């Protein structure tokens, strides 16, 4: 224990001696947590719409007014020429074209049906799919409103009316920030833990101080623990800062216990720090460590379920996510923050990440070659 205490003193002094490290550890996660949730928005807004109206009827104008008042669409162009609308698409001034044919209102009233045409700019597939879905939903809603006006008294009405009421659990206002902030916080804690831990040992290799440790009677596990414990404490501190920012800036208060979050975070940090230490044993300079860490973080983030649903991924990608520790922490954070889950609910995730921690740290200890 005396040896470990001296190593920990040395590590903390080394960390806090460098002002740039302090800025990276504390300022970078805080700034990113304040900015990223505003940019990582699942909703698609400000969709530029070009309307080609060949009918110029009251029903056509009412439908266009309903579309533009939804808050999702901006009326970029309103004309009677389809070629002009396509020019708007080609010059990236419009995202969708809605063509209203001549006789739209007449057919709707006399024949009880009419047709519309949509042309969607599909270069951005996500925006095209969501924009088209929003537009179809608004048109269907308008269609229901029109048909409701035509319905006679209930006893004479041939149509059955089914009323559906919905209740949003865990996120009643459908606020995407409540869903995204916990996941982004997990990524920031992972970046600080795995990234800085891997650079720490490599930096000592470059400046030669690790050679001085190699000729001492310090055990390998003492050395690994001396590198792991400081960043483990810093990771929990960053988590605390992130939870404070989430509460102050976004009003997010975990529905579950903070003890559950910190219990899982403590085990999770052991896993990602073990990964960072393992990477450092395979690299000889900071450039290699940075590139390898960047590659691993990109894979972890994209296959974590942060931005895309794991269920929508191909089968091979879903298998890969099972070996991604970030996936488990994001799921746990959302379960505890939104649903109020307890230790029993996250026990499977906890033991899985504990297995990662044991395996990665054992591998790091074995792989660290200490010359005496």
From TrEMBL:
InterPro entries: ABC-2_transporter_component, ABC2_TM, ABC2_TM_bact-type. It holds the Pfam family ABC2_membrane_3. GO terms for molecular function: ABC-type transporter activity. It comes from the Bacteria. Gene3D superfamilies: abc type-2 transporter like domain. It is a multi-pass membrane protein. Residues 136-371 form the ABC transmembrane type-2 domain. The keyword Transport applies. Signal peptide: none annotated. Its main location: membrane. The chain crosses the membrane at residues 21-40, 178-202, 229-253, 259-279, 291-310, 346-366. Keywords: Cell membrane, Membrane, Transmembrane, Transmembrane helix, Transport. Belongs to the ABC-2 integral membrane protein family. This is ABC transporter permease. It comes from Niastella populi.
